[in-house]
């Protein structure tokens, strides 16, 4: 189910680059992905899920969040990491 906001979550275990990651609601109309800083695989239940550490165009706080790659590609089809 698509909602007007993506929910970004901090996932463990944290790495050095994840220290600035926090839970935030991102409204696609007001902010867009600027660049991909890192990539990781997480256990998404029955399969591995690819997540990107995304720096956002309006990076007040937090400057970057871990996002499911599939959701970013669906919501921002012109974004090329």
UniProtKB/TrEMBL annotation:
Chromo domain residues: 31-81
Superkingdom of origin organism: Eukaryota
Protein name in the entry: Chromo domain-containing protein
Originating species: Nymphaea colorata
